[in-house]
Design brief:
By secondary structure, this protein is of the alpha+beta class. Among the domains are: about 225-305, Alpha-Beta Plaits, CATH 3.30.70.1450; about 320-400, Alpha-Beta Plaits, CATH 3.30.70.1450. The protein has helices spanning about 5-20, 25-40, 45-50, 55-70, 75-85, 90-105, 110-130, 135-145, 155-165, 180-200, 220, 245-250, 250-255, 290-300, 340-345, 380-385, 410-425, 435-445, 460-480, 480-495, 500-515, 520-535, 540-555, 565, 570, 575-600; strands spanning about 230-235, 255-265, 265-270, 280-285, 300-305, 320-325, 350-355, 360, 375-380, 395. The two termini are about 30 Å apart.
Length: about 600
């Protein structure tokens, strides 16, 4: 082993240690790798900086902006919400859709965006259909990871492998060349989830019951609303269907207040004279549980879904909680919210008042306001974001930035058309992927879908720095001979067993590495090794490159390896053992798909 190889191995080993332990942020580790390669002379300076000009980095940035456009116009959300109509209350159909739809979507949109938008929708469906949330959330994340293998833009590490493949003198992968493998994985995962996986996931009697309070908002906890906010669903046989809220007299007759009526996941302005209740409307009701139970008993056709339970926003809608305070010398001092006609003027509802270190949650609208009072308000996202509390109030807890503002919903078709144009240009090799995605990003701005002043907020710069910083390590492994040394070791140990076993071994190594390392880092490390191993065995290198892609996506065993499985851990109340139990079957499926399908598509 030469000094150059020793230096590269030392840098690689140190980087992996830092990645696994988390002592230093991953993007900073990538920068240190880049600096170390230049300082030790392992690479020339121009080679060290090649990563940031690679097509992979450019395409990733463009794709993140394209995904943001699809999210901002509500395209992704609309697709997710169609689950409700397709599932139709059937647990089997819901399980199928819960796997297939996010899996297919993540082939074109960021898997993180896909999972984040599916979580609130699935929470709603789980409660509506009396299904434990833990049975549905983890399959979403796993399907999204598998769906990244549908297209070359489905995951950042796909682009990294493709770039390294092209740099080695091989033919790059086509836009949809991976699709058969991705389709096989998604369908296999759906069948596994339905037949076996559901039994391996925690159920209603295990830790993390549906009504766990751990994922409620801080504002709800602060105002002690855990026992005062309820979601009540109108079933099709309810006598309230076809009536207005004024007719059912829920306030005077039961001592409850309707804060919002949610229809198709959107809060409605229900105080209009022409607003009529429909089946599947959800009432967000404020009051004691005993009164809610009495209401349901007296009016058949109602179903209590429980508490709103999504962090920061209610899962049922774009409605949310905000908080304002009454400043000194405010013109509202001494007046009640009823006096101010607050609800009609703002479309917001007073939920509680914080006064003298205690919350007041009853008859909020009739209490004269005092200096220093904090008001907890609820309303549709569009209204909370357009609300100006001055001059009577000041902000304490501002609304969150909207993901899909209603005013942009009509632009959804244009966002989808732009994305389709990018796919067509790249898919038919009319433009390189990097150029096509940058053009699509520019079109999102020019069409008004994304504001130019906030364009770069949608780029995950940590990922860009991670890929750009780690990219030269792959070049260093190739130039120094480190990749060849590892490849010789793999070829000598596994090569005698045949190319199938060798390919499965490469997949398994990448799979194990990606449980703790970012997929792009795994791609940088393993692609040169895979290509050199294929060369030593005298077989088609694409098959081994695809093995790296599939293995680097398989973060199925630990939640920390990728944001998607980590995002569902809290709302699903999963423990590490749940990932291991459920993910073990997915690992087996992945290895089988690679062993059977990859050699058929890319013969040795």
């Amino acid at each position: 082993m030469t000094i150059e190889i020793g230096i590269v191995f030392a840098i690689l080993g140190t980087a992996m240690l830092l990645f696994i332990t988390g002592w230093i942020r991953a993007d900073i580790v990538a920068i240190l790798v880049l600096v170390s390669l230049a300082a030790t002379g392992a690479l020339e300076v121009e080679d060290v900086l090649k990563g940031f000009s690679s097509e992979a980095v450019i395409a990733i940035a463009g794709l993140l902006i394209l995904s943001a456009g699809l999210v901002r116009t509500g395209v992704v959300r609309w697709i997710a919400e169609r689950l409700n109509d397709i599932a139709g209350g059937s647990r089997k159909r819901l399980t199928w859709m819960n796997t297939l739809v996010p899996g297919v979507l993540s082939g074109f949109v960021s898997d993180i965006a896909t999972v984040s938008l599916f979580i609130p929708v699935v929470l709603r469906l789980a409660r509506k259909n009396d299904i434990h949330r833990s049975k549905l959330l983890l399959p979403i994340a796993m399907a999204a990871l598998a769906g990244g293998s549908l297209t070359i833009i489905g995951a950042s590490h796909n682009l990294v492998v493709n770039d390294l493949l092209r740099a080695s003198g091989q033919t790059a992968l086509g836009f949809f060349e991976l699709a058969p493998v991705g389709i096989a994985l998604i369908i296999s995962f759906a069948v596994y989830t339905l037949v076996i996986g559901q039994r391996l996931l925690p159920g209603e009697n295990e830790k993390g019951a549906v009504e766990s309070l751990e994922d409620r908002t801080d504002l709800m906890r602060t105002y002690h609303l855990e026992d005062r906010l309820w979601e009540v669903l109108l079933l099709k046989d309810s006598s309230w269907v076809g009536k207005r809220l004024q007719e059912i007299a829920i306030g005077g007759g039961h001592g409850l207040a309707v804060l919002s009526v949610v229809r198709h996941h959107e809060p409605q302005l229900h105080n209009r004279d022409d607003f009529v209740l429909k089946k599947d409307d959800m009432l967000l009701v404020s009051g004691r549980r005993t009164r809610v139970d009495k209401l349901v008993q007296e009016h058949p056709g109602l179903k209590v879904l429980g508490h709103p339970s999504q962090p920061e926003e209610f899962p049922s809608s774009s409605g949310e909680l905000i908080e304002v305070v009454v400043p000194p010398r405010s013109p509202v001092v001494g007046k009640t919210m009823t006096d101010l006609d607050f609800r009609s003027e703002t479309c917001l509802t007073g939920v509680a008042i914080w006064r003298a270190e205690n919350p007041i949650r009853t008859d909020v609208g009739t209490i004269p306001l005092q200096e220093g009072d904090a008001l907890l308000l609820y309303g549709p996202g569009d209204q909370t974001r357009s609300y100006d509390p001055r001059p009577g109030f000041l902000w304490l807890h501002k609304p969150h930035r909207v993901e899909a503002p209603r005013k942009l919903r009509h632009m959804g078709k244009w966002a989808a058309l732009i994305m389709a144009g990018v796919i067509a240009l790249a898919g038919f090799n009319l433009l390189p992927i990097g150029v096509a995605t940058l053009g699509g990003a520019a079109a999102m701005v020019l069409s008004g879908i994304l504001p130019a002043r906030r364009l770069y907020e949608h780029v995950e710069w940590r990922t860009i720095v991670l890929v750009g910083g780690m990219f030269p390590l792959g070049l260093a492994m190739e130039k120094s001979g480190a990749a060849g040394l590892v490849s010789t070791l793999i070829a000598d140990t596994l090569g005698t067993l045949g190319p199938h076993i060798t390919m499965i071994g490469i997949t398994l190594i990448a799979l194990l590495l990606t449980q703790s390392l970012h997929g792009a880092a795994v791609a940088v490390i393993m692609t040169p090794v895979a290509l050199d191993t294929a060369g030593l065995l005298g077989i088609e290198p694409k098959a081994f490159a695809v093995a790296v892609i599939i293995g680097a996506a398989a973060t199925y065993l630990l939640p920390e390896g990728h944001p998607a499985p980590l995002m569902v851990q809290s709302p699903g109340s999963y423990e590490t053992r749940d990932y291991l139990k459920f993910g073990a079957g997915l690992v087996a499926i992945t290895l089988i798909v690679v062993a059977v399908l990859v050699p058929l598509i890319w013969p040795f």
